[in-house]
Every structure is written in C-alpha cells, then in structure tokens.
Amino acid sequence: MRVLTACMLGAVALMPLSPSAQVRAEVVNRIVATIDGEPVTLFELERFAEQAPRRAAAGEQVATDQRAMLDELILEKIIKKQAEAQGVAAGEQQVDAYVASIRERNNLSDAQLKEALAQQGLTWEQYRTQVRTDIERAALINKEIRNKVTVSPEEIERYYKAHLDEFPTPERVRARLISRLVPAGASPEQKAAVREEAERIRKQAAAGKSFEELAKAQSQGPGAADGGDIGVIARGQMQPEFEQAAFALKPGEVSQVIETVSGYHILKVEKREGEAHQPLAEVSDAIREQLYREHMEGRYERWLKQDLRARYHVEILL
Length: 318
Hints:
Mean pLDDT: 85
Radius of gyration: 37 Å
Distance between the termini: 49 Å
Helix content: 40-55%
Number of strands: 7
CATH topology of the domain at 172-273: Chitinase A, domain 3
Structural class: alpha+beta
CATH class of the domain at 172-273: Alpha Beta
C-alpha cells in the first residue's frame, strides 16, 4: 500500500484548484449585495432563509422569494450596524440576563431550554444571536423612535370629537319593581293564583294607580318599602327577563307581567339616564394609548424602510 509522506501531503495541499472547481466555489458563495462596500454572500442569504419556517411559526411575517429575503437580511445587517454606531450593542451579560429571565418566566432549566430550542431547530449559539439582535433592536427603537413620539392633548381632543360614536355611555334606566313570589314546591294551581294577583296589580298600575303605593302595599320583592325603587340599572346588571322588559319601555310605561323562577313581576321605568357619550376625561388615557401606538407603528415603518436604509449605500448584485 502506498503511504503519503509529509512532503507528498504538502504537495497535495499546495495544488491549485482547477478552473472548474474555482467557478463552482464562486457560484456557491458569491456576493449578492454590498452595504457600504461590505459584502453579503449567497451563503449568508441561504442560512438566513433557513430560519424562515421557524420565524413564520413564531408569527413573524417572512418573505416568500429570494429577492425579498435578501432585503430582509440587508435590513437586519443595517440594524446591527446602526446599533453599533449608536453604542447600543448588546454585551454578553445582557444576553445572559435576558436568557435567564426567559428561563425563570417559563420555569425551565438550561437543559430544558436547550431541548425546547432544539425542537425548533435552533442551536444554543443561534438562539443567543437572536436574543442579542432583539435586545439591540429594542434599544435602538427606544433611542431613535420611542422617545421622540408624543401625543398632545389637542390630538386627543380632535380624535375624541371625530369619533364620538366610539365612546357611548352604557344605557341606564331608573325603575320600580313589584314582585309576587311563588312558594317553593307550589302546585300549578298555586302558581296560577299568584299570576292572577300579579295581573290584577298590573292592570291597576296601567290604569294610573300609583305604582309606588301599589309596591308598598303588595310587593314582596326588593325595595318594597321604598315603593319598589330598585335604583339606576345599566345593561348587564339585571336578570335577562327584567333587562329585556326594562329597556323596551319608555319612561312612565308599565311592563307586562314578567315570569321568572321566583314568581311574577311588574316593572315601571321612571326615566332613562346617561349622556350620548362618555366624557373626554374618562377616555383620554385610552385615546392617548391608541394614538401613541398608531404613531409608533407609522414612524417605525418609515424609519425601518426609508430613514435607516437611506443612511447606508446598498448595492444589490443578485
């Protein structure tokens, strides 16, 4: 058997690649773009594309073609460059602290976290790189966007006036109630007798007799001593049978007899209460949060797609 000597090994190592082999190497890892003269290679793009299924599974929007994927990779590299330029590059301690917080929040050991990452197709180093990128992006956004976005009181008021229909006041009624209760285990005849009593009382009320006096004299329900006054009721605060009847009545009207498991009841609506919409003071915080979020989203898109990219000279060679 022929044995390769050290000299022969050296000779093999020094043999130049054939022209066809050189062409294949260039094709495999050719330059597909430059950022301020720094190359972005096809190999980097392919590695970046391999992450697309995992990112999509995590809810991110990902490109579906190679050219759009290259744009995403360029943007990620630009963000990295800008983070370094702004002095917000994440150090190892920051990455360690972030990873530790993830473990604690999910009650995972190092081994369990690594196993979960492996199931997602991520190595430990890939995960730390992703964490570092997330930290740097958040810090950069805080420095370049978040601290510059404000919502003035005038903006809040303009939005409020233009969208009053978004802030309705829950409809409320002030009502009185007369109840005639059915004893537990009552026979059909006993129930019919109680209903007959309720129908008689209702006719008196509908004919104009004081509902308040009728309630004091004959109601067995809440507020009887106060003339059946059950106060101001908003939607969602009454039994469905009562709510349906109460909000169908006009002020001064008396309901039909309402049957429930406890007995028979009559409602009278005294008045409806509530403004057409909630006052500005009650909703200004919610409006501020909404406008701030909208401003942030718009400014972030401009910063990401226009302002940030304009700071770097990008040449596409794909």
